[in-house]
Amino acid sequence: MLSTKDYFYELPPELIAQDPLADRASSRLMVLERNDGSIAHKHFTDIKEYLRPGDHLVLNNTRVIPARLYGEKEGTGAGIEVLLLKRLDADRWECLVKPGKKARVGVRIVFGGGLLSAVVEDIVDEGNRIIRFEYEGIFEEILNELGEMPLPPYITHKLPRENRERYQTVYSKVEGSAAAPTAGLHFTPGLLDEIRDMGVKTDFVTLHVGLGTFRPVKTDNILKHHMHSEYCEISPEVAASINECRKGGGRIICVGTTSVRTLESMSDEDGHIKSGSRDTDIFIYPGYKFKAVDGLITNFHLPESTLLMLVSAFAGREKVLNAYAEAIKERYRFFSFGDAMLLI
C-alpha cells in the first residue's frame, strides 16, 4: 500500500514563512541532484548556473483573484465566509462556505451592505456549494472592492490590500486562481530577462489553482485520495514551442507543480504536448512515469500533501525527505512565502 504517513515530517512552526521577502529573488535555493541525491545551498539568483541555452522554462501565468468574501445571511445577519473555488459560468461559482450549516440550499447571502448578493443553489462534493451571484455592474470590479486574497491557513499575517501584488507572480495574466503558483513568486522581471539573454526560452501555460491542491491527504491509502479538478490550458504556439524544444534536445524545466501537472495532463505517452484546455484531476505520486518534464523549480511543501508526493515521484521519496531534513537543519523558510528548491 502507498501510505500517506510515509510523507510526514516534523516541521518547527517558526520555519513557516509568514511574510514575503521584500526582494523576491533574494530567497535561498536548495539544489537537489536527482541522480545521486547530492545537495547544494544557493541563492535564488544562482538558478542561472543550472540553466543552459536551449532549455525552456515553463511558467503558470494564472492570476489570483481576491476570492475570500465575508457576508451575512439574509434575515438573521449571521456571518458567513465564502471562498470562490471555480467559476462555472458568468455568475455561478463552486465555493467553500463556512459555516456550512448556515448555507443550506435557497439561503441568500449579502455582501458589502447589498453591493453583492448570492443564493445557494446546490451542495456538491465534500460540502462545497454552488452559488449564484447577483449584482449591478462588473463582477470583477465588485470582487476587487469586497474580496480579500485567500492566503493559506498557515499564514496568519494579513496581507494588506496595497501589498496584494506580492502574492502574484510578476508574469501573472489570466485571472482565476484561489491560490498563487508560489514557485514563481521568486522571479523578478530583471532575472527573467537575464535568463532569456542566456538563450533560455520562457513558455507560459495556465492552470487555475484550487485549494484542493494544498489540502493534506486524509486517507491512509494514497490511492483513495480524491483530487479536485482544476482548469488548465496550453496555446498552440506554446505547445509547438515545447515540442520543438524536446525535439532539439533541450530540457523542459517547470516552474512549480502546477506547470508540471499542466504538461503531464496535456501530454501523450511520448511526451508530445497537445494544445487546448481541459479540467484536470491528475494525481502524481511515486511510481508515476513523467513524460514531459526534465527539471522542477518548486517551494517546500506541507507534510502528507499531494505536492510533496509529486516532488517525491520526480526525485525519489528518500532523496526528497532527506533534502527536507537538511532544509530544516539549515533553517530554510517553508511553504508559500518560503525558499525555493531546484530538482534537476
What does this structure look like?
By secondary structure, the protein is an alpha/beta fold. The protein has two domains: 4-64 and 165-343, QueA-like (3-Layer(aba) Sandwich), CATH 3.40.1780.10; 68-146, Thrombin, subunit H (Beta Barrel), CATH 2.40.10. Helix content is 18%, strand content 27%. The strands form three sheets. Strands 2-1-17-16-14-3-12-13-15 form a nine-stranded mixed β-sheet. β8 (108-111) and β9 form a beta hairpin. α5 crosses α6 (317-329). It is globular and about 65 Å long. The two termini are 28 Å apart.
Number of strands: 17
- CATH structural architecture of the largest domain: 3-Layer(aba) Sandwich
Q: What's the main sheet like?
A: 9 strands, mixed
Query: What is the number of helical segments per DSSP (H or I, 4+ residues)?
Result: 6
CATH class of the largest domain: Alpha Beta
Shape assignment: globular
Taken as a percent bin, the fraction of beta residues is 25-35%
Report Rg: 20 Å
CATH fold field value of the largest domain? QueA-like
Structural class, from secondary structure content?
Answer: alpha/beta
- Helical amount among residues, as a percent range? 10-25%
Q: Mean of the pLDDT scores?
A: 96
Please provide the ordered H/E string of secondary-structure elements: EEEEEEEEEEHEHEEHEHEEHHE
Strand order of the largest sheet: 2-1-17-16-14-3-12-13-15
Let me know the CATH homologous superfamily of the largest domain. QueA-like
Poorly predicted runs are none
User: How many domain modules?
Assistant: 2
Termini separation (Å)?
28 Å
